[in-house]
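Quick start: what a row looks like.
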Amino acid sequence: MNKYLKYLIVIYGISFSYSQRVVGYYPSWVQSSYDISQIDFGIYTHINHAFAWPNEEGEIESDVGLFDISVTDYVHNQNSKILLSLGGWGHANGFVNATSSHELRAITISNILDVIILFGYDGIDIDWEYPQSNEQKNNLNLFIMELDSVFLSIDPDLLITMALPTTNWSGQWYDISFLSQYIDFFNAMTYDIHGSWTNHAGHNSPLFQSPPGDSHGSVETGIYYLVNSRGIIPEKLNMGIPFWGKQYNASTINGSFSGNVIDLRYYEIVELINNGWVEHWDNNAQCPYLIKEDESQIITYDNPQSIQAKTNFAQSRNLGGIMVWALGYDSDDSELSLSNMIQSSWLDIQKGKNINKISEQILINSYPNPFNSQTQIEFSLPFKSNVQINIFNILGQNIQHLVKDEFTKGTHYIQLSQNKLLNNSSGIYFIQITTDQIVKSHKIVYLK
């Protein structure tokens, strides 16, 4: 039985535990200060041990001190799985050559298998950042297919997972429809959305675009891209959550900045709150940020409130799990712990059921559909709520803001005219309604 057939059986008889996956990357550079025993295995179902990588001859190299059988043994004793993560930023060159021919792929796969058997890993996470041509895309396909074939012959339970970018800039070089046959689940890198390369001091991982329509995107547009445009089954996708933030030389969120942008771990950020820095909330992004009291710097990051908003979003989209970069960065012993919020807002079964119940009570429809000149959007609320309604194209880009207001319990109607979509081509679009509790979408077809 191949992995794809096994996966179909799983999703048609899906268990709650499968849809509550929590993956944590455990990088080598935190191992000396953050022992494997400090991880809460009541939360984390899968550990990605980072990083090793193939060199150009297909040999497996790693960060100093990465491989330690006591680490894999400990994870297994906690009834969790641990995968070896291959790649990471700065290690793409080895993949290019190591996957370039059948002979080199065979050597690479053999060396991967040796490491798995020697140290007891449950599989491999591929983090190639990034293929950059059709040739490399095709070689990645062959590498994954051949790796899967070897895994099936040795142990069908060995996992293959993959980290993915969330925009077409790099995402175009991944053949998602082909890879999905062999990849057990994907980890969406829904962070680093703003940074030193962007034109303003924006959020590291905004749930929604801030400012509205921001071309750099958001977690939402990234998930839309992977699910709607690239066709990943939602249950096979983990939404990435960063346990770190970015410090800018700027006076306000989304303003101009100068100099270097510095990455800060979450536990470093927590110490600054109300200690020379003032916390603010961006309602558009659904994320916090800090402004230094002299207004010379800002820090963008996630806190428990934004994590709850993201896990609610993931549940409303029926995503299969959450992925965290990185273990060892949280403020574990603090009441502001991000891992604890993931536990309460993602792993709590009753909370998940309540969210699904709310989702079922919020109705959205449109008539006519397909439409040409105009369509009437109808939505019903089970309670009074703040409501935003936006239109997204199939790439997950927010192309029109229709409504942002408070609505009473009951049924409401909004007209969407041809004029709102005049500069857009015929095709599929999505009406998204965001309330205080849930996010929900409805597909429409525009015939120009």
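That is the whole record. Residues 1-19 have pLDDT under 50 and may be disordered. The domain at 3-241+304-354 is CATH 3.20.20.80 (TIM Barrel).
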